[in-house]
Amino acid sequence: MTTEKVAFTGVRQTLLATLYGRALDSRADRPVLGDRMAEDAVRRIAFDFTRFRLTPGEAAVVAMRGRQLDEWTRAFLSDHPDAVVAHLGCGLDCRVFRVAPPAGVQWFDVDYPEVVELRRRLYPGRQGYRLIGCSVTDPAWLPDIPRDRPALVVAEGLTMYLSGPAMETLVHRVANHFDAGGEAAFDAVSPLAVRLQRLNRILRTSGATLTWGLGDPRRLEGWDPRLRLVAEVAAVELPWIDRLPFPYRLACRVMRLVPPLRRLGVLVRYRFSD
Ligand SMILES: C[S@@+](CC[C@H](N)C(=O)[O-])C[C@H]1O[C@@H](n2cnc3c(N)ncnc32)[C@H](O)[C@@H]1O
């Protein structure tokens, strides 16, 4: 087994924390996601993952977010077996392997070039699957992606690291590119979570900075008239909360009762029309 040395800092290092969260979840008695490929990848990367000091509860929270986005992805692909998927800020996430899309789907994983290079060394290829090494703020990631099929743009743990103007530009580019329309599904944090970021251990450890918070998800409809919000779920209301250790379940219950805390983390799904 070859070991990969990784010297990522800042936002690129956060992908190691979320990978480790999924690996820890896969070791649990009742995993939320059960992603064994994450565990295998962690074993192959020469990096001290314990520095993130992730608790089993934090690992389960990462896994719950991933599971919800997996389920939205599966739902879209079951309605559109000829779709294209653009998975932005993929990091080392194994969504394409967990979802195992039907043969008619073309799936593109997009992240910075050095992240994509590491992915190539760690994971196998698949039919209909391609990697694009490019910043999502650079329009160069789009032209290679077919525009004439229903599209799902999915992003996990990405939007909070983009600026507001970069998010708005991204929304327009996506809506302009995909002529057949489609959906966008992603998680976001609230402006309060951005203000409270010093409390976030993963950010302190990696040196990454949160830059964008989503207030009212309907505001994005004002950015582009082709966008419609179709689903919104607070992270503390995800269906797998019962798998969290008791203190986390209790914290979720309390947070649900306090609107600004309930909205610290949300998952949203938009439809964009042709
Ligand atoms: C918290 S990690 C999440 C990674 C993966 N989605 C997961 O859930 O494990 C944030 C990811 O966003 C990527 N990222 C941040 N800004 C980016 C940008 N402008 N272009 C492409 N990727 C970006 C980072 O490289 C990293 O892989």
UniProtKB/TrEMBL annotation:
It comes from the Bacteria. The keyword Calcium does not apply. One of its GO terms (biological process) is methylation. InterPro entries: Ppm1/Ppm2/Tcmp, SAM-dependent_MTases_sf, TcmP-like. GO terms for molecular function: methyltransferase activity. Keywords: Methyltransferase, Transferase. SUPFAM superfamilies: S-adenosyl-L-methionine-dependent methyltransferases. PANTHER family: S-ADENOSYL-L-METHIONINE-DEPENDENT METHYLTRANSFERASE YKTD-RELATED, S-ADENOSYL-L-METHIONINE-DEPENDENT METHYLTRANSFERASES SUPERFAMILY PROTEIN. This is Class I SAM-dependent methyltransferase. It comes from Microtetraspora malaysiensis.
